[in-house]
Amino acid sequence: MHSSQGVLSGALPRIAADILERLRTASPAVHCITNTVAQAFTANVLLAAGAVPSMTLTHAEIGNFVESADALLINLGTFDGERREATLIALDVVRHRGKPWVLDPVLIDRSPPRAGFAKSLLARRPSVVRLNAAEFKALGGTPDAASVSHFAGEAAIVIALSGAKDIISDGQRHVAVTNGHPLMAKVTAMGCAASALTAACLSIEPDAIRAAASALLILDIAGEIAGDAANGPGSFASGVIDALHNLDAVALEQRAKVS
Questions:
Q1: Residue 122's domain spans which residues?
Q2: Quick one: pLDDT at residue 61?
Q3: Following DSSP, what letter does each residue of 9-21 receive, concatenated?
Q4: Which of 38, 46, 168, 243 could form a disulfide with 225 if both were Cys (CB 3.0 to 4.6 A apart)?
């Protein structure tokens, strides 16, 4: 393990607590181009963390919304023409203004056109790509630490691979997070919300691997706390929002499982 990697892993709970505090103080605006099933839960997760969501797709105004936002999420879950056009408009604004953005290539393993569009977006240099193992395979990677690190280094972006063990790498530094709860896989839009929270963290933390690793750690620990009291997926989903709203540095430090 590189010393810089070890320092980052050991310090991540403190880093995440600092980022969460800054989120709550700054209330950054995050514009989300996301799928229809994810909008409400994603918005509520952002609000619980302290960020302010917006989600318009209208071509006449999306440029203005992205212009005034602090970060952007591009989620490909609903792959329709309106969202593809909105994505290109939004990314033109991001390019000119130097704003951070996150790509969530949802279900690219199921659709070649979707995968092709996602690969074209990689050329526009997202700050972070947040995805699962099947989606990472569709981009040509093997979902293990070495492949994630290689892909991140070659693309010059941060890869945040979610799973039972989250793997986050910028090609030089590598962090693994093993927090979370099994019910997180039973609530739709949990991964979408993780990507949105990553964008929120990027808006106030310029080091993309710190922002991405902190976002996943924060949401994973909120999931653990919610799981302690949940009776099933329904109560768990609302519990995650409550746990995120009440999360503090003590819980992050006590519960973090980072290597």
A1: 3-255
A2: 96
A3: HHHHHHHHHHHHH
A4: 243
Phi first, then psi: give them for residue 28, nearest 5 degrees.
-70, 150
HSE at residue 99, side-chain half, CA atoms within 13 A, is: 27
| Single-letter amino acid code for the residue at 217 | L
pLDDT at residue number 140 = 86
- With contact defined as beta carbons under 8 Å apart, do 71 and 202 qualify? yes
Q: How far is Cα of residue 211 from the mean position of the Cα atoms in its chain?
A: 9
**CATH code: domain of residue 56:** 3.40.1190.20
pTM of the model: 0.96
What domain count does the chain have? 1
Residue 129 backbone phi and psi in degrees, to 5 = -110, 120
Per-residue model confidence as pLDDT tens digits over 179-210: 999 999 999 999 999 999 999 999 999 999 99
> Which tokens belong to 187?
């609530």
Cβ distance 154 to 147 under 8 Å? no
SS3 35: coil
Give residues with Cβ within 8 angstroms of 228, minimum separation 6.
none
Residue given tokens 């329709």 in the structure block: 80
